[in-house]
Write a sequence for this structure.
C-alpha cells in the first residue's frame, strides 16, 4: 500500500528533482532516476552497477565525501549512519539491503507511479516504470537448505566487513544492525514473523534517499572544486 506523502516529503522530492537537473547533465538524469527505482524495487545489484558506471565516485574511497545534512523530519527507518557519504558505509548499506532482499520468500512489488486518491498519477513520480523484479539466484533456490547456506555466507561477509570499520561508533552501529537483520534467518517465512519490519518498503526508501544524497552532495563538492581550480 502506498503511503500518503506529507507536504514536507513532496517538497523534498521536488527540490531533489530541481537540484538534480541543475547539477548533472541531461544524459545523467535518467540513470539517477533508474538507480533510485532499482533500489526501491529491491534490485540492489542493478543499482550498484549503474552507480559504478555513471557515478563511480560515490562508492569510491578516493572520491570527495562531504557530509550529508541531517533530515528535517524523523523517519521510522533510516539507513545505518544515514548522514554519511563514506563509500564503505554506502556500500555496506547496499549490501545489507541486498541481504534482506535475498531473504524474501514473498516478493514486494514497487510501483514507481502511484495513483493519488483522485486516480491521477503523482507529479513527483519517477521517469519510467520499474520492470518486474528479476529473481536472484538465492531467491530462485528450490532447496531451502542451500538457500540458507547462501544467506549465511552473505551474512558472514557482511560481519567481516563491518568488523573492519575503523570508526568504533560506526562499527558498533553496523554490527548491531547486522545482529537484528540476521534474525531473518530464523524464520522460514520472514514476512510473517516479528522481523517483517526489516523487509518493508521503508527500508528500501532509506537506502535510496542516502544514495541520492551522496550523489548530489558529491556533485556539489565537484562543482566547488571545478570553480576553485578554473
Amino acid at each position: 500500500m502506498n503511503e500518503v506523502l506529507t507536504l514536507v516529503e513532496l517538497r523534498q522530492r521536488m527540490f531533489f528533482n530541481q537540484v538534480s537537473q541543475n547539477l548533472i547533465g541531461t544524459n545523467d538524469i535518467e540513470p539517477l532516476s533508474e538507480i533510485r527505482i532499482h533500489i526501491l524495487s529491491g534490485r540492489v545489484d542493478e543499482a550498484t552497477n549503474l552507480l559504478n558506471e555513471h557515478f563511480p565516485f560515490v562508492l569510491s574511497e578516493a572520491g570527495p565525501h562531504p557530509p550529508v545534512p541531517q533530515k528535517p523530519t524523523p523517519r521510522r527507518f533510516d539507513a545505518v549512519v544515514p548522514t554519511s557519504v563514506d563509500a564503505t558505509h554506502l556500500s555496506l548499506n547496499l549490501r545489507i539491503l541486498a541481504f534482506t532482499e535475498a531473504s524474501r520468500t514473498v516478493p514486494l512489488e514497487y510501483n514507481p507511479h502511484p495513483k493519488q486518491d483522485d486516480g491521477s498519477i503523482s507529479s513527483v513520480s519517477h521517469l519510467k516504470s520499474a520492470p518486474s523484479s528479476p529473481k536472484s539466484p538465492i531467491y530462485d533456490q528450490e532447496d531451502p537448505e542451500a538457500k540458507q547456506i547462501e544467506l549465511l555466507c552473505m551474512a558472514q561477509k557482511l560481519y567481516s566487513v563491518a568488523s573492519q570499520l575503523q570508526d568504533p561508533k560506526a562499527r558498533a552501529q553496523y554490527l548491531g544492525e547486522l545482529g537484528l537483520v540476521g534474525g531473518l534467518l530464523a524464520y522460514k517465512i520472514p514476512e510473517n514473523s516479528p522481523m517483517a519490519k526489516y523487509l518493508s518498503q521503508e527500508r528500501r526508501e532509506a537506502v535510496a534517499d542516502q544514495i541520492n544524497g551522496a550523489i548530489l552532495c558529491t556533485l556539489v563538492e565537484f562543482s566547488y572544486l571545478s570553480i576553485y581550480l578554473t
